[in-house]
Amino acid sequence: MNAATPQRRKERIDRGIKVRTEGIYALMSWRELAYLAVPRLVLIVGLLALPQVMPGMYWQRVVSIVCIYALLALSFDFLAHFVGLVSLGGAFFVGTGSYLTAILNTKLGLSPLVTIPAATLIGGALCTLMLLPCLPLRGVYFAIVTLMYPLFLARVIEALDILGGTDGIMGIDSFPSAWLEQYFVIIMLLLFLFAVRRLVNTDLGLVLRAVKDNDQAVRASGMDVTRYRALAVFVASAIGCLAGACLVHIYMWAGISTFALDFSVLPIAATVIGGSGTLVGPLLGCLILVPVSELLRDFGTLRIVFYSLILLAFIVLRSEGLMVYGQRKYHQIERWTKI
Amino acid sequence: MDILIYGTINSVALMLYALGFALVYGTSRLPNFAHGALYVLSGFIVWSALNTFGLNYFISIVLALVITAIIGAVIYRVFLIRVRGMEISEIIASYAIALAILEGLRWSGFKGMTYTLPPFIEGSTTIAGISVDYQRLLAVGIGAALVAFLWVFTHYTRIGLALQGMAQDERAALMLGIDSDFMAVVAMGLGSALAALAAVVLLPLGNIVVESGYNVLILAIAVCIVGGIGSWAGAVLAAFIIGFAQILTVVYLGSHFQMVVALLAIILTLILKPSGLFGQQKELEERV
Questions:
Q1: pTM, two decimal places
Q2: Does any CB of chain B come closer than 8 Å to the CB of residue A85?
Q3: Residue of A nearest to B274 (CA)
Q4: Is the pLDDT of residue A1 over 70?
């Protein structure tokens, strides 16, 4: 640093309106109310209107896929940034959810409106059970085990030729109506988005964040870290299974490809690009990445290379992500001050 | 008898996979998820040097070792150093590198069964009535030599001792004048070279396929977890346990279950003794 140039630093100050809208004072004027409500309304109305503005069936289907990936990314973001567990296997949740749905639908003949909640709950419990051994441990174990499960399960299904083998399970019912097919996923996404946002601000969420930041302190307070982690994993894997269940009913097919790498990598990339720890960021990331990946469909596995490079660039150079940047601009003013 | 011989060979192969990962993770606490990708990459480097550029086999092997070591060091110096200490980012970044390498190789046409490396020495011999080819015997010899070398390296050389110091207490090592960033670059380079060496020794036994990148990573991690991180003896023992368990399942249950052994081994270890067979170091830190 040259001594001749005046030393400056960037100062960030919360906007007055942000401070005013915290708490009951938000009701003071329409402007304050709008400040709070507009971002949320943009999200809700925007998502609900999205299928209407899409040209043609194909892009409406892409909206559903965006929502499915966004659910996965939401579960990744929740687990990684609010509980401190990095899951490299979103595909594990999707795969479990989709195979469960397929079995419930084809073997027991249940309607999609029953199979989806059932697969969500059973799948969440099943995934939690399978991940239980690595929950008492800190470090990389959770990441490793979640990375391994989808690879193994795909191979086991292939090798033993169970559950339809390489062909997958076919003849699954679609949603009762096209309208429901389109909006079910979107509504579920909005529901879980706001539910998880609320969850991380409750006492339970506080404990979970404490588990992430300092698990010894949580243990010293007489709380069972493993139990809280298991609970968080249940929530996250249930969301992942829900995504898988919706996917199956949209495509009317469940197969080994639900264990594919795309389901593990794209949500992570979307989270990092959109903004880690914001919960809305992952959705933004998916809205960017999924259409791009649809356009790149012809390039095959190059898509995964593309996600990984974007992921690497963002995590190394711009680890805050778009949403954090946006929130900062919305809530704060920045100015240069002399030191 | 053939269980004994093939079990030993399989165990040594597992050990070769794991050594590089164990070195990096044991010293700089960096889970190098790109390990398997480097393994496959070096296989393709040898193949290209051999077939595309028509180099001598020995020269292409040396070339692959050097290039992979440099790639590993560069990966650390350029990318991973910036996210050092942030566990979530470390995992994601190194996994992203692995995916970029592996899927990039797959996209650029390196797939299928057509890529093979010739063995160092053709032919086979018979031990106790079972025919074993020389390449497998060579792999066992190299594996044993490598473990001995690593043991001597980490116990008696300056760099090795510095790496050990870093593994035990990074801050104290810094105060004693050990440059921890430089050491981590060295560890990463060495670990990548070990991955390349494993590839060079083991790939002639089969085809070079991109999928094996994931398998190698998983097996390496399995060996490290079962053996306990930071312990060479543990890694060797774990390699033998998993190796023999794999061969036994292949013989008695069928080859489909071979990979399940590694998963089961990890899960059992995590339930019964999370620090691994010999990992006393950092035991309290791993457990919550």
A1: 0.84
A2: no
A3: A137
A4: no
